[in-house]
Write a structure and sequence with these properties.
With 709 residues, the chain is an alpha+beta fold. It folds into 4 domains: 163 residues, no CATH class; 59 residues, no CATH class; 193 residues, Endonuclease Chain A (Endonuclease, Chain A, 2-Layer Sandwich), CATH 3.30.870; 232 residues, Endonuclease Chain A (Endonuclease, Chain A, 2-Layer Sandwich). It has 18 helices and 33 strands. A hairpin with an 8-residue loop joins strand 14 and strand 15. Helix 11 runs antiparallel to helix 12 and helix 13 packs parallel to helix 14. It is globular.
Length: 709
């Protein structure tokens, strides 16, 4: 047996070994994995073709992230009649694989294959994945020109000098991702050796490919390959999670953080450019492994960047993993799947990557939620996690699953306690919370009419939800009337619960709404805001009587708020309120208030969170608080159809999900404390500062049209 050659390359390159004699065998081994023989996300696809010439194709790739390590192929011949002695005896072709994401890092050099970044020269992004998906001609030109020999720095054109600091950071990122490596003399000789034998090495793209000479000992050759210092440096760099995810907190702390957050379990996401939020007790990031070992999961969301999402799963070690086994030197390598972590994604906004993800990752099932009308949106943001100890967890969020929403935007998240399985044989009617959260969640999931959710509904039915202290508030498309349990969905559901469980509230106490978008609310405040929405949210447990409407206050970022944000005007990218809608409701400005969150270090992080609350500043108490995916709109919350003689139905367009905090179920009191601890109960963690700051005469709400001006 002789080692023919050793080829080291990143796994997003496919290797095809062709023109092998018919009786030859090929052995593939993976080096540089002594610390972790199980390489997450790595796959080999070995195919033998018996045509003429005989061909063996080996494809090796990493579908999810940019390559995080290098793979070494050891080509071995056991043909006694005509042994392969060295690389001259084979034709070796390396070409980019068709993996969905990491391939884009190599395709990047062919700019016509990449979409241009929609923000062009205004792009503020600093995430490597973004630069693998989009081209930035202004940066590429600067990078290709290289460093100025006199100043040893990049020459930035005058029109870009205003953002020179950001551009230099982006160029440093390009240096790390796409280093301009020089081919040393030995590599040139190796490439010439192969090219003389009709091999194609993609000389420009594959500067990272190393080809060592033949050896009579596989062990010696492997040692030689594994000792290449430049490979080790690349491995160290590409394995660094901080190169891909900006804010990383110490692992293993989330369980303690969740325990300390009781009884509210309400968090805000960490803000990249606000370091004070990185270690705030009530800040969370996507990365943590202390909440349980995930067996399977469901992500329900509107916008999903599947590459970004799976990148997080990858770094958390939650991916399809293959175990690589050498069966016999006379046979091809054999592969056995050793772990399979299913992921179900229900999404609202279509993308080519989501449509094809199952072809690349069989453990990922992505289903677009079917909506009844073009005006309907699957807007819910919810996660379901099943753990290997048979417990599970529910998370209700306001963040889409793509990088921008977890970067410099204020997002809210409620995390349930761990929900243990019910004891075998126990009545499944047992185990619900006093808020009926489990029943309401199951009824909500049934409304999707998606068969893939049935196993999850069954699992929820067998889980103990008794520790949950909030109400599930959902919206589902359709017309809905009041039933035995009251109204099931939308703002009418909130009304039913407040009538039963909210302590009496002085009618002068305002209702404060806060969302990242505003719908068409009508020609005046009475049209829908008062007659529908406030009429529901003003309810309490006092007997029905004639009362005046409470004040309506709306928190929505002003133009000034956005212009002073971490991302400047682009910070308004999450605020899709249009000029055409704003012009139809000029009355709204009288009720608008600035976004301010100094106490939570998020005044410059534009809010994508949606919240609704009623609190008394004088008494320092909160009557209730609602976190939801639902913006202030008829589509999200529903509008009563009043043009009928029978009981009016609530017409809802969207899927939405939220949680309602009522003090009697959370703390056993009539109200939550506000601002200070009361009798050992921590204050409710509002996401914004109080008292509110109303718009001044010259203030205007931020309009999406400003970004297109």
């Amino acid at each position: 047996t002789h080692v023919v050659c050793i080829i080291s390359f990143h796994p997003c390159i496919s290797a095809s070994v062709i023109h092998l004699p018919k009786t030859s065998a090929l052995e593939v081994d993976v080096l540089n994995h002594e610390s972790s023989p199980y390489l997450p996300g790595l796959y080999f696809d070995v195919k033998k073709s018996f045509g003429k010439p005989h061909t063996t194709d080996i494809k090796c790739g990493l579908d999810l992230e940019p390559p995080l390590f290098e793979v070494t192929l050891v080509v071995v011949s056991n043909n006694a009649e005509k042994p392969l002695r060295n690389a001259r005896d084979i034709n070796l072709e390396l070409q980019p694989s068709e993996c969905m994401l990491c391939c884009s890092y190599y395709k990047r050099e062919a700019m016509q294959n990449l979409k241009s970044c929609p923000y062009a020269e205004k792009c503020y992004r600093r995430n490597p994945i973004h630069f693998g998906e989009f081209s930035h001609p202004h940066l590429d030109r600067i990078y290709e020109n290289g460093l100025d020999k006199q100043t040893n720095s990049y020459s930035i054109p005058p029109e870009l000098l205003e953002n020179s600091e950001l551009i230099l950071q982006q160029l440093k990122l390009l240096e790390k991702l796409f280093p301009k490596t020089k081919i040393n003399k030995k590599e040139e000789e190796n490439q010439k050796l192969i090219s003389d034998n009709n091999s194609t090495f993609l000389p420009e793209k594959c500067s990272k490919i190393l080809l060592s000479g033949a050896s009579t000992s596989a062990t010696a050759a492997c040692d030689k390959a594994s000792n290449e210092s430049n490979i080790r440096k690349k491995q160290k760099m590409m394995r660094n999670i901080k190169d891909y995810i900006p804010v990383i907190v110490e692992k293993g702390q989330m369980a303690k953080k969740l325990e300390a957050a009781a009884p509210y379990n309400l968090f805000l996401t960490a803000i990249t450019d606000s370091k004070s939020t990185h270690h705030e007790p009530l800040s969370v990031t996507f990365q943590d492994d202390s909440l349980g070992e995930i067996e399977s999961s469901v992500q329900i969301n509107f916008m999903v960047d599947i590459g970004w999402l799976l990148g997080h799963y990858y770094f958390a070690g939650i991916l399809l993993v293959y175990r690589i086994q050498l069966v016999n030197v006379r046979k091809l390598i054999a592969f056995k799947s050793c772990r399979h972590t299913p992921l179900l994604v229900l999404y609202g906004d279509e993308s080519p990557e989501l449509k094809s993800i199952s072809q690349h990752k069989p453990n990922v099932t992505a289903i677009k939620v079917t909506m009844p009308t073009p005006f309907s949106t699957s807007h819910t943001k919810m996660m379901l996690f099943a753990y290997k100890d048979c417990s599970m967890r529910v998370i209700v969020s306001t963040a889409n699953l793509y990088e921008d929403d977890w970067h410099n935007r204020t997002q809210g998240m409620w995390i349930s306690p761990r929900l243990a399985p019910l004891t075998e044989g126990v009545d499944t009617n047992a185990g619900d919370s006093i808020t009926n959260f489990r029943q309401d969640l199951m009824l909500y999931l049934v409304e999707y009419k998606i068969s893939k959710l049935q196993p999850w509904i069954a699992r929820i039915r067998k889980a103990d939800f008794s520790s949950i202290n909030v109400f599930f508030i959902g919206s589902v498309p359709g017309g809905h009337r009041e039933g035995p349990r009251g109204h099931p969905w939308g703002h009418a559901r909130v009304s039913s619960l407040l009538q039963k469980h909210c302590a009496p509230v002085d009618e002068k106490i305002p209702i404060v709404c806060q969302s990242s978008s505003i719908g068409s609310l009508g020609a005046n405040i009475q049209t829908w805001v008062q007659h529908d929405f406030l009429n529901s949210l003003r309810q309490d447990s006092m007997p029905l009587r004639v009362r005046q409407f409470p004040l309506f206050k709306m928190i929505y970022p002003s133009f000034g708020n956005v212009s002073r944000s971490h991302d400047g005007m682009l910070g308004g990218g999450c605020l899709p309120y249009s000029k055409s809608t704003n012009d139809k409701q000029p009355w709204l400005k009288l009720h608008l208030h600035q976004w301010s969150s100094k106490m939570r270090h998020r005044s410059q992080a534009m809010p994508h969170i949606k919240s609704y609350a009623r609190y008394d500043l004088e008494a320092q108490c909160v009557y209730w608080f609602l976190l939801s995916s639902a913006n202030l709109s008829k589509a999200a919350w529903g509008a009563f159809n009043k043009n009928v003689n029978i009981q009016p139905s609530l017409r809802i367009c969207n899927y939405e999900a939220g949680v309602l905090f009522l003090p009697r179920f959370v703390t056993g009191e009539d109200t939550f404390p506000l601002g200070v601890v009361r009798d050992g109960v921590p204050p409710f963690p509002l996401p914004y500062d109080v008292p509110l700051t109303p718009y001044g005469p010259d203030d205007t709400p931020f309009l999406m049209d400003y970004l297109h001006a």
